[in-house]
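Record 1 of the preview.
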Amino acid sequence: MMQESAFSKQQKSTSSGRSLPGLRRIVKEFWPQIRQQKLLLSVSFIGLVVEVVAQLLRPWPLKFIFDYVILHDTDVSAAKFPMLADANSMVLLLIFSIGIVGVSGLRAAAAYVSLVTMSLAASRIVTEIRAKLYAHLQRLSLSFYYKVKS
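->
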């Protein structure tokens, strides 16, 4: 097992401390462009949250299939939901199978919405920043380009 030296720990904390002010400066500079896309960014964030919740819900229909369809004779499954213990196994299997497909579909739709809206917002932000940069370069005098060779 390799131990980290005190120097490398200090170096990591110092480098992350230096990167945060730079990140703040970048966000502060581009905040007007980011703020204009707040609706798309909000929809993307909501889509991401729905995707995570749907991912957490994925195993539950399968749990109910095991508890109430496959192992329906045990008393453990009847203790939590007695109305499911009395239902027909094939109807429960159909309902929980539809639940699996529904949760997977919800997750896929939320991932799609999140990806598309974030991509659209990012594209619009970058386009506006490029236009601002190009306008700035156009306003510079010819003497600037003569002095500064690239």
